[in-house]
Amino acid sequence: MAHRFDVFGWFDNEFDADGFRECSVTGFNVHRSVEHYVKLYGVTAVVFLLVGGLFALTVALTRWETVALLEAGDYYRHLSMHAWSMLIFWIIFMEIAILYVGGPMVLGRKLPAKWAAAVGYAVMLLGAILIYYSIWTVSGDPTADNAPLLTAYVPLEINPLFYASAIVFLVGVTLAALPFLLTIWFEKRANPGKTLPLVTFGAFVASMIAVQSILGGLIAFGGALAWQFGYAPWFDAGIYRQWFWIIGHGTQQINLVAMITVWYLFTHVIGGAEVVSEKVSRTAFILYLFFIVMGAAHHLMVDPGLSAGWRIWNTSYAFYGATFASLIHAFTIPAGLEAGRRKRGKGGGLFGWLTSAPWKNPVFSTSIFAIILFGFLGGITGVLMGQLQLNMSWHNTFATVGHFHSTVVLGTTLTFMGVVYFVIRTMFMREFVSPKLATLQPYFYASGMALTALMMMYVGILYGIPRRTNEVVENIPGTDFSIQGAAPLFDVFGVVAVFAIAGGALFVLLAVGSLLFGKRIESGDNDDLVADGGSAEPRSADSRALEARDDLAMAEDPEDPVHAYEMRGTFVLCLIFLAVFVVAYVLNWYLLTQLWSIGA
Amino acid sequence: MTSPIKPPEGNWWDQPVNRRESIWLGLGVGWALVLFGWMSAFTRIGDQNPIGETYRVTSEELRESVDAFKAEAEERDDGAYVPPGDDIYVVGMQFAWDGLPVVLETGREYNFHLGSYDVQHGFSIRPEHAYSQQINLHVTPGKEWIVPMEFDEPGTYHVLCNEFCGEGHEGMHGEIYVED
């Protein structure tokens, strides 16, 4: 029975007497409490994506100086709104939903401490609204009240309410994560010695990185407040930068681990992938746990007062421990898909496993595009700009913006769009309002965004275009100089950016449209989501609960180990990736050595 | 057991690893060592390193140093300073670079004293004749960072700010004239 406030019928799935139902696609034993909170956090995230997307449009149309939509002061405010909506609110609300899926939903448990999920949600929402308020009411007086952008760098004068609101938001996130952590605690207490499923393990590693990040954020924002009120005059720019980037970069590492976890989940559920080596995949997650927080130092490569040794050690994640972890997943995830599909008889030749994959399914294509584009555009550039010396040609240029649009948008946002599609189909139980457009949207968005990110990198590296400014190509106030040469490329940037934003808008329309007007899915209607058509059977005539499908069960046959199947397609793809990596590395170093000499 | 959503059973740690996967792991370790080794070696053998002594300094002290530099320097008709020695100052403030414009000679190593009087700024420099040759360093108040640079090519080098420093940041610009 739908609750009387549930006017859209979003929370009216049927559960058994204990509050559970079995998902016909994944076979998960889903408790009502888990599903409801996944939906709540997920829908809220999409609202923030919409807000962030509106500001993406105004920001892009300003940087495209042929249009030059906003004045400087408005631009900085809009840029702050865009950054916090996308990078923080959209992504973190989604991540709480993903933690609830990866923990209690995969494990078939109830959501413990439901109050924490509810209070955490309210506090996060309050924090977000206060942050919006403190950004929108900025006067723009450079000596008194500046736009915070993402970073709110001390000692820039920024409304103390902003730092306080950021702390409120972090407290909310901590509360919201509590039910996940308790789930792991209860599960390990109930089943000591039993290994967690890989997806749960990945989500757990993401949550541990979140703990590190939140601690960094509390010190950064708390310290900034203490400095503003005169309690900590020693809390200077350098100290703030280091603590801020523990959270600033750390939150992006949560995204990384969360989306890799989603990739393992979706390639398995939708594509029929299997885990080719639990040992190798889990080791990679452990490497992240130990090393990835050191990535905060990537932002301090060209800062004064830090020794070269400290910078090299940290930026390399101690001999590239975390980069190695990513290289591992770059192999194991496609290899899981290749071996798993070969095992099902779906992979002839070198790439038959890939060409026969369910490319029309947006839940699948979002993850695959994210894997490819994150790796080639985001991952490679991240390592390049994270090298001590190469950072001199990347730091604070528009190329940096291109890098993180490759990681956070092409990687995380694209993956999370797939998660939203998945939640709409399997939890809200709604058909897409237009399955055709839903199929096309990831192609549309991924291609537009990839071109946008490439153009950002191109003008950043080859023209030295700075980030965080509204005027540099057509005119720089107060001088005759401007980087006019980049104007034609900015015209390309403007067009592809608007194209990408239209792809994002299409996503929001499809998601909201499907939730409001999508046809309700009855039992058995979700078979097209299942790997290779599946074979779900209703458990009984009058129940929506379905038996787990035979083909996911294939992954549990110890007599037919997946590691024995061919992985040569993946191997070739990975070699191509490594070759591109090496070429990009050599090119960047070549450009650097063409410069005048610098440094002691 | 090879499902990512089911607990693996038995001794999953000792399951064999596919040969191609093992090769890839080896390549990954090798590449990681190259990345580390080259970055580390380049600090010894390379000509482009963001490395230099840093000193703690107050804004007042820094301003005194810059004023002393300006007093000693010869000032040309176009307002550019010709430094008396090998030390020059480029200090960020809302919204200009103090110590600029300055005239430098090609083939001579100068100590750039980088710093800020107020908030964080981004020292972003490129010659007018080749935008792709650009270098970016971060400056923070409270620190005086001494980074040597030697220019080979004459020309006008433009310094922009590439860290947001308040409304007006977009117009923060200075010039360095490198002459033979």
Architecture overview:
The complex is a heterodimer of chains A (600) and B (180). Chain A is 64% helix and 1% strand. With 600 residues, chain A is mostly helical. In chain A, a hairpin with a 6-residue loop joins strand 1 and strand 2. In chain A, helix 5 packs parallel to helix 7, helix 6 packs antiparallel against helix 11 and helix 11 packs parallel to helix 17. Chain A starts with 19 loop residues before the first strand and ends with a strand. Chain B has 180 residues and is an alpha+beta fold. Chain B has a 5-stranded mixed β-sheet, covered by helices on one side. The model of chain B has no long low-confidence stretch (mean pLDDT 96).
* Count of individual beta strands of chain B: 12
**Oligomer status:** heterodimer
Structural class of chain B: alpha+beta
First-to-last CA distance of chain A: 73 Å
Strand content of chain B: 35-45%
Strand order of the largest sheet of chain B: 1-10-7-4-5
